[in-house]
Write a structure and sequence with these properties.
Elements: H1 3-10, H2 13-20, E1 24-28, H3 33-45, E2 49-54, H4 63-71, E3 75-78, E4 93-99, H5 106-111, H6 113-132, E5 135-144, H7 149-155, H8 178-197, E6 200-206, E7 209-210, H9 219-228, E8 234-237, E9 242-243, E10 246-247, H10 248-260, E11 268-271, E12 277-278, H11 279-289, E13 296-299, H12 314-320, H13 328-344
Parallel strand pairs: 1-2, 1-4, 2-3, 4-5, 5-6, 6-11, 7-10, 8-13
Antiparallel strand pairs: 9-12
Helix pairs in contact: 3-10, 6-8, 9-11, 11-13
């Protein structure tokens, strides 16, 4: 009898079963941009039993999605999880839950702020109440740098900005901030439910995550479409504003590290690159990639858009071992190439967009 067999014999039958069982992982919002890429990463790098739950509102169940689901036998649950009945379709036990579901985007916040409030608040509440009656090991809640955007302009808080920054909404009536309001509520809800119900919870605040297949209501797809439309002179909206653009593969690896690193219960982590660039730099390099030879002019941006934002990622580096590997220029090149190939193939924008 070899050593491994002896160890197995020492374990009870129940322990033996748990030892060989695969982890059950739920990605709520798993058809969205970040959620899908988390699913892809886990499918390719872990031997987990994966379940995606999503309403597919953006019609993002395409060939790429179907191929991944088929190849790795991923379970897909389609329903609107802003309503409580949908949660009856989920199992009552998961080792890990990635809570990525939300209605996002500045365009959505400005055009239908009431739906941003309803959907995101409902998603947080009903997910937490489902957790109350379920057996859940650990949860990642996807939050945003928008939560502290107002702190920088209103109080001059330091940049790069650490996780302990006070969260501020400058104008509570402005639709632009409805998304941040719901994410602040979500952070509080998950952290406090976690304490009371005994499940582990870690918060991730993403900073301008981008990459191929990210949708069309975001700054980089906007830039590409406008260059393709021949705009000249080309308007640079908010030219002197700054952001930290984090490529999707780095955001995914940081998120999985937060889930799988011990001792992160109750913690908040900023994910970004630590590199602050201006919107003018982003726009001009996109133009270079698009072979634009025309003129540029500066223009006003969205009302309520903050002047500077860049995270201090020291905590993520020290506690998670996270370091962004893809530079914003390399990531932008890959992203622009993907959108050009998409449009060159004769495909059109599947959703209404507003440029600015």
């Amino acid at each position: 009898m070899n050593k491994i067999q002896k160890i197995k014999n020492w374990l009870s039958p129940g322990q033996q079963i748990r030892n060989i069982m695969r982890k059950k992982v739920l990605i709520l919002g798993g058809a969205g941009f970040i959620g899908f890429n988390i699913t892809k990463y886990l499918a390719e790098n872990r031997d987990y039993e994966l379940t995606i739950a999503d309403n597919f509102m953006k019609k993002n169940r395409d060939d790429v999605f179907d191929e991944l689901v088929s190849k790795y036998a991923i379970r897909v649950i389609e329903d609107d999880f802003s309503y409580p009945e949908a949660y009856n379709k989920l199992d009552n036990a998961y080792d890990q839950v990635y809570m990525m579901a939300a209605l996002v985007g500045v365009d959505n916040a400005n055009s239908k702020p009431h739906e941003v409030i309803r959907i995101n608040t409902s998603l947080a509440l009903y997910t937490l109440e489902w957790i109350r009656r379920s057996k859940i090991g650990k949860v990642i809640f996807a939050s945003t740098s928008e939560n502290y955007a107002g702190t920088i302009d209103a109080f001059g808080y330091k940049i790069p900005t650490p996780e302990e920054v006070p969260l501020t909404i400058q104008n509570i009536a402005h639709p632009r901030f409805t998304y941040a309001v719901t994410k602040i509520l979500g952070e509080s809800g998950f952290l406090n439910y976690g304490k009371m119900l005994g499940f582990e919870i870690t918060i991730i605040r993403y900073h301008n995550v981008f990459g191929p297949r990210m949708g069309f209501n975001h700054v980089i797809p906007h830039l590409v479409i406008r260059f393709r439309n021949g705009e000249d002179p080309y308007k640079i909206y908010g030219h002197d504003q700054t952001r930290d653009f984090c490529y999707i593969t780095d955001a995914v690896e940081g998120t999985v590290l937060a889930m799988e690193t011990p001792g992160t219960n109750g913690e908040i982590y900023h994910l970004g690159t630590g590199i602050e660039i201006t919107i003018e730099e982003l726009t001009r390099y996109t133009g270079e990639l698009m072979n634009f030879k025309g003129a540029y002019v500066n223009a006003e941006t969205y009302p309520g858009s903050v002047s500077r934002r860049s995270p201090d990622i020291t905590k993520s580096k020290k506690q998670l071992g996270f370091t962004a590997k893809v530079s914003w220029k390399d990531g932008l090149k890959k992203t622009v190439e993907w959108y050009n190939e998409y449009f060159d193939a004769g495909k059109t924008v599947p959703e209404k967009i507003t440029f600015q």
